[in-house]
């Protein structure tokens, strides 16, 4: 897990949101059991 502290600004053209990061901290994996999400493609091939 990463925690980013900063401020959002709008680009000069007004089309983008920019994060100006002031600090980035990496935290350890939680002590409790943690389940990582698993994503599968809906368009996966099927065996015949």
TrEMBL record:
<protein>
    <submittedName>
        <fullName>Uncharacterized protein</fullName>
    </submittedName>
</protein>
